[in-house]
């Protein structure tokens, strides 16, 4: 069986909703091997025009805020409405070994057992921005497989975690009540990217604190500049309890209202087009960086780094020389 036949068969199975084929396809696109990348690009080409559109929801928040619990409760609610839900959970990786625990799936036991839900944990592999390098492509595969909602859970490490906003339709920020310094909301960065801020754990003894925190963030949001992609009242803050399933239907209504309005204004399609251009530029950058890891440039980079370390050359000058060596070099599309 030829490689083209194998890839076509995998594409057909993904389009048919085969979960095993979907898992194999995501593993293929996440692989760093050159031969696998060539196959992955061929697969993505076959699925590019599947004419299936899922709603991509990005979810971020600090560790311990209850992201996994929220996703499970929210996902169960969506499944109960007859929707197919895919979860792409990004776990932090070791900066030393690249390894990852990938424990998100074990924390979503109920959702894992649902036939109309698919959970895929992936290591961030030390990528910045809270998502793995191929998360967007994994979302495309889930979309082609017929899932209606794709939840993208980021690592959850802080204000710089904004890359997920470049691959989702609605970006939700999950926060804990009484977390301290609630007016962090006025800071630029991740707060500026959020479409919906949900104060989780609004139950029991924390219910009153959650209401106060929600009010603080609602006030902070009014200080931010009005965004063209928002209807009146957005971005907004609200309280939810993933443990008691309260506030989740209202949050889903807010998300649907926001998406419907953006589609009616032509902003939904425009945003996806802008995101595609963003990832095109990112892949070009990654392709150039990959060239520096290959002969004959690899040894030159090592030599230049040694000169920088010895103080014989400034980092800026060494970088200029390294980039100059790439100006006439062809790009190997297996690395893009």
TrEMBL record:
Keywords: Kinase, Transferase. Gene3D superfamilies: 1.10.287.130, 1.20.5.170, P-loop containing nucleotide triphosphate hydrolases (3.40.50.300). Pfam families: MeaB. The keyword Signal does not apply. GO terms for cellular component: cytoplasm. The keyword Glycoprotein does not apply. It comes from the Bacteria. InterPro entries: GTPase_ArgK, P-loop_NTPase. Signal peptide: none annotated. One of its GO terms (molecular function) is GTP binding. NCBIfam families: lao (TIGR00750), PRK09435.1 (NF006958). Belongs to the SIMIBI class G3E GTPase family. ArgK/MeaB subfamily. This is LAO/AO transport system kinase.
């Amino acid at each position: 069986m030829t490689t083209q036949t194998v890839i076509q068969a995998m594409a057909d199975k993904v389009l048919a909703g085969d979960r095993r084929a979907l898992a194999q396809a995501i593993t293929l696109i996440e692989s760093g091997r050159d031969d696998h990348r060539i196959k992955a690009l061929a697969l993505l080409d076959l699925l590019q025009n599947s004419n299936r559109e899922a709603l991509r929801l990005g979810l971020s928040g600090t560790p311990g805020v209850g992201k996994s619990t929220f996703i499970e409760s929210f996902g169960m609610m969506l499944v109960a409405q007859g929707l197919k839900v895919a979860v792409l959970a990004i776990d932090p990786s070791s900066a030393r070994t690249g390894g990852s625990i990938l424990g998100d799936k074990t924390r979503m036991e109920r959702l894992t057992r649902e036939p109309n839900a698919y959970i895929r944990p992936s290591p961030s592999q030390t990528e910045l921005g809270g998502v793995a390098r191929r998360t967007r492509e994994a979302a495309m595969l889930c979309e082609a497989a017929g899932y209606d909602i794709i939840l993208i859970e980021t690592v959850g490490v802080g204000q710089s975690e904004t890359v997920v906003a470049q691959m989702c339709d609605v970006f939700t920020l999950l926060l804990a009540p009484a977390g301290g310094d609630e007016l962090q909301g006025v800071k630029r960065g991740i707060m500026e990217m959020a479409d919906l801020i949900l104060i989780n754990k609004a139950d029991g003894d924390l219910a009153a604190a959650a209401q106060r925190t929600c009010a603080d963030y609602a006030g902070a949001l009014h200080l931010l500049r009005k965004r063209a992609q928002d209807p009146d009242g957005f971005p907004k803050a609200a309280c939810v309890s993933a443990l008691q399933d309260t506030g989740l239907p209202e949050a889903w209504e807010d998300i649907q209202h926001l998406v419907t309005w953006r589609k009616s204004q032509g902003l939904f399609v425009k945003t996806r087009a802008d995101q595609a251009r963003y990832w095109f530029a990112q892949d070009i950058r990654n392709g150039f960086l990959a060239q520096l890891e290959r002969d004959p440039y690899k040894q030159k980079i090592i030599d230049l780094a040694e000169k920088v370390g010895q103080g014989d050359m400034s980092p800026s000058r060494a970088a200029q020389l390294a980039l100059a060596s790439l100006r006439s070099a062809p790009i190997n599309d297996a690395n893009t």
